[in-house]
Design a protein that fits this description.
Number of domains: 2
Radius of gyration: 24 Å
Number of helices: 14
Distance between the termini: 64 Å
Oligomer: single chain
Number of strands: 12
CATH architecture of the largest domain: 3-Layer(aba) Sandwich
Shape: globular
CATH topology of the largest domain: D-Maltodextrin-Binding Protein, domain 2
CATH class of the largest domain: Alpha Beta
Helix content: 40-55%
Length: 381
C-alpha cells in the first residue's frame, strides 16, 4: 500500500485517527475511487506493525462517517456513488459540523469573516489543483445561461475569491470563470463569447498594461477597464530554495527544471520578453515546453517537487508554501464592452469588487495592492 510514510507514530495523535485521515485524503484526491477495496485489516496491520484492533477501529470510524462500507466476508470498500440516502445526509451533517468548528476556532483567534473566506478559497484552490488538474472546465464559446456572467482570461487567485464572494452576495447570479490566458480572453470578449475578460498584458514600447492591446484588438469599440488588483509576479521556488536559484539567468542550468505557462497568457508573454532582453534561448531551459494554464497549477507542481521553478504570482507561491523572488508589479484589469459593463449583472460585479469586504480579502494576501481596485478607464474609438 505504501501508506507508512504518512504516519508519525510519535506525534501524540492516535494512530487510528492517522489511518482515518490517510484514507479520507486518498478518497478526496480520488486515489481511492467509489467501489475500490481497502486493504484487509490484518494485512494492513502487519504492514504497519500494529494491532489489528487499531486498524479495525479506524475502519469503523470511516464507516460511521460514510466514507466506506463493509461487506461481511468480502472486505471494506469506498462508498459507491449514489449510496443510501442516510449516508448522504450523515455526510452533510458532519460537513456542517466540521465547517462550523473551523469557523468558530478561526473567530476565536480574532480573524474576521473575510479572513476565513479567503483562507477557505485558497485551500480549495490547492485541493482542486492536486485532485483535478486534468479535468479543468472549458466554457469559452458555450451557450450562456440565465443570470450568468461569463469570464474568460488570465488566471489569478483573486478571480477564485471573486467567484466565491459573488456567490455569497448574489446567490442567483452565476459567475462562470474560464482560464485561457490574457490574449485569448480579449479575443473571446471581442467575439462576444465572454462578457468580461481578465488581462495583465504589458506593452514593452509604452510600458502600459492592457490599454495598447485593447486598442489594437478592438479599435472600433468603446471598452471599460476596471482594475481588479495590482499584483507582484516573480519566480516561484521549492521551499528553502534548494537549488539556490537567484534569477532568470539561472534557468539554463542543467540541474534546474522549469514549468511554463501557456502561450498567450500574460505571464508567458512577460517571461518570453525577459528571455529576449537577456539574450537567453528558450531551448536551453529544461521544461520550457511544459505548459500549465494557471498559477496554482505551476505552484502545485513545484510543491510536489516535479519542477524546481516557475513564473507566477506571489499569492500562489504563498498559498502553496513556496519561496518567491519578486520581479515586477503589474496591473490585472477586468475588461468589458461598455454596453455590457452597464448591464445590471455587471453592475453587481462592480459593487462586489469595490466592496470593503472584498478589498479586505485581497489585502490579507501577500503580493496584492488594492490602491486602484475598482477604478475604471474608458477607451473610445
Amino acid at each position: 500500500m505504501g501508506v507508512r510514510p504518512d504516519f508519525d507514530f510519535h506525534s501524540g495523535e492516535p494512530v487510528y485517527l492517522q489511518i482515518v485521515d490517510h484514507f479520507r485524503r486518498q478518497v478526496a484526491l480520488r486515489e481511492l475511487r467509489p467501489g475500490m477495496r481497502l486493504p484487509a485489516i490484518r494485512s494492513l496491520a502487519r504492514e504497519l506493525n500494529l494491532d489489528p484492533g487499531t486498524v479495525a477501529r479506524a475502519y469503523r470510524e470511516l464507516e460511521r462517517e460514510g466514507v466506506i462500507v463493509s461487506r461481511r466476508g468480502s472486505g471494506s470498500f469506498v462508498t459507491p456513488g449514489g449510496g443510501k440516502e442516510h449516508i448522504a445526509e450523515e455526510r452533510q451533517k458532519r460537513l456542517g459540523l466540521v465547517v462550523e468548528r473551523a469557523i468558530l476556532e478561526a473567530l476565536g483567534l480574532g480573524l474576521t469573516a473575510e479572513d476565513i473566506e479567503t483562507a477557505f478559497t485558497l485551500r480549495l484552490a490547492d485541493w482542486r489543483e492536486r485532485g483535478t488538474q486534468s479535468a479543468r472546465r472549458r466554457r469559452v464559446g458555450g451557450s450562456k445561461q440565465k443570470n450568468e456572467i461569463r469570464f474568460a482570461g488570465s488566471h489569478d487567485l483573486t478571480i477564485e475569491l471573486l467567484t466565491t464572494h459573488m456567490r455569497t452576495l448574489y446567490p442567483d447570479l452565476h459567475f462562470a470563470a474560464t482560464f485561457v490566458g490574457s490574449l485569448a480572453g480579449l479575443v473571446a470578449l471581442e467575439c462576444r463569447q465572454a462578457d468580461i475578460a481578465g488581462a495583465h498584458l504589458l506593452d514593452q514600447d509604452s510600458g502600459r498594461f492592457n490599454v495598447p492591446f485593447v486598442k489594437r484588438l478592438m479599435p472600433n469599440e468603446t471598452v471599460i477597464l476596471m482594475n481588479l488588483v495590482q499584483r507582484v509576479q516573480g519566480l516561484m521556488l521549492a521551499p528553502k530554495n534548494p537549488k539556490h536559484i537567484l534569477g532568470i539567468e539561472d534557468l539554463t542550468r542543467p540541474d534546474i527544471t522549469f514549468v511554463n505557462r501557456q502561450s498567450g497568457s500574460g505571464t508567458r508573454i512577460l517571461f518570453d520578453s525577459r528571455l529576449l532582453n537577456l539574450g537567453m534561448a528558450p531551448a536551453k531551459i529544461r521544461g520550457y515546453e511544459h505548459e500549465e494554464k494557471t498559477h496554482t497549477a505551476v505552484a502545485s507542481l513545484i510543491g510536489q517537487r516535479r519542477a524546481d521553478v516557475g513564473l507566477g504570482a506571489q499569492s500562489a507561491a504563498n498559498a502553496f508554501g513556496l519561496d518567491f523572488i519578486p520581479l515586477l508589479k503589474e496591473r490585472y484589469d477586468l475588461i468589458a464592452l461598455k454596453e455590457v459593463f452597464e448591464r445590471p449583472s455587471l453592475c453587481k460585479l462592480q459593487e462586489a469588487v469595490c466592496s470593503d469586504s472584498f478589498r479586505h480579502m485581497l489585502s490579507s494576501m501577500p503580493g496584492y495592492d488594492v490602491t486602484d481596485t475598482g477604478k475604471t478607464v474608458t477607451i473610445s474609438p
